[in-house]
Amino acid sequence: MFTKILCLVVIVSGCVGDYVTEDEYVDAVLDMLLNGVSREFEQSGEDDNGDEPILTGGVWKCGSCDNIDETKLIYSEVNEVDAEMMTDDSVDIQIGISLPNMKCVTVNSDVKGVVRRVAGACSGDSVTLSVAPAQHFTVQVYN
């Protein structure tokens, strides 16, 4: 019985050893678990060009939105949170968008709120935005 357990431990350590031998990986995982510090964003190669959504004329705009018009619209979605789910006004929804050649993302809401960029870049291939409070809003992506 002891021999079978020892064999199993050797096989598992041999299979997993390739993934855990890198000191940087282990340090990053431990740092994330112990301190909540994530290095994933820097290692993933995502473009962090600092685009933050800006409120302009009642519409949140993120990216290069200077010369946008309806002919450059590549994606649009309407989001509505069910009123029965709303126990208070602090519902925060994250929207992940991944489309090639995005230049501008706009968020138009019926209620005043805050739109923040969580990850990615609005003028890139992938972005995650946070909308709070989320009740009824429209997201549009332009290239």
Question: How is this fold's topology laid out?
Answer:
Blueprint: H1 2-20, H2 23-35, H3 40-43, E1 54-56, E2 59-63, E3 73-80, E4 93-97, E5 104-109, E6 114-120, E7 127-132, E8 136-142
Antiparallel strand pairs: 1-2, 2-5, 3-8, 4-7, 5-8, 6-7
Task: Fill in the keyword field for this structure.
single chain; 143 residues; alpha+beta; five-stranded antiparallel beta sheet; 8 strands; signal
Polypeptide structure, described:
By secondary structure, the chain is an alpha+beta fold. The protein has two domains: 2-42, no CATH class; 48-142, no CATH class. Helix content is 25%, strand content 33%. It has three helices and eight strands, in the order H-H-H-E-E-E-E-E-E-E-E. It has helices spanning 2-20, 23-35, 40-43, and strands spanning 54-56, 59-63, 73-80, 93-97, 104-109, 114-120, 127-132, 136-142. Strands 1-2-5-8-3 form a five-stranded antiparallel β-sheet, with no helix packed on it. Strand 1 (54-56) and strand 2 form a beta hairpin. The radius of gyration is 22 Å and the shape is extended. Mean pLDDT is 75; it is low at 18-22 and 41-47.
